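Section 5.1 Outputs to date
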Amino acid sequence: MRRRVFLLLLCVACLTIALISPESEAKPKSDDGPSPTKWELCGCVASHPPGVLKEFFPDLNFERVWIFTSGLLTPLMHCFCIEGMAIDHCILIRPEHSLGTPYGLGIIAHELKHVEQWEEIGAIRFIIRYSVEFIRGCYINSKYEKEAREIQGLVEEEMMP
């Protein structure tokens, strides 16, 4: 059951990102002002990662990364206790996590690590390897999750007042 839910969530998330990605937007066709983008129509709020995290990810192009809060997947993320999710250069994060808190920045850093992993080994390999580890029940001990939790802890510790 857990495996099916994960695969369903992954498919829904991939489809949602494909539909709402700001990079896929066409230019407005009228001079009456900008028309709403499809990510605005679905209730998503999109932004780039906070600049304060650049020192932790010096090789990552923050202009290519989009963070989505709110929107279509929020209820599903609540239901399965998912704090955030990275799919390629898009990060979904639950809207109650303030990007101004150490914990919120830690979650973004965790997901940014996954974005780096996507870039390093490619989307297909990452999806296969991550999914295989998850299905085998090795989520906690997954190489990818260990790396992400490590940077998350580092960011949270560094950002503490």
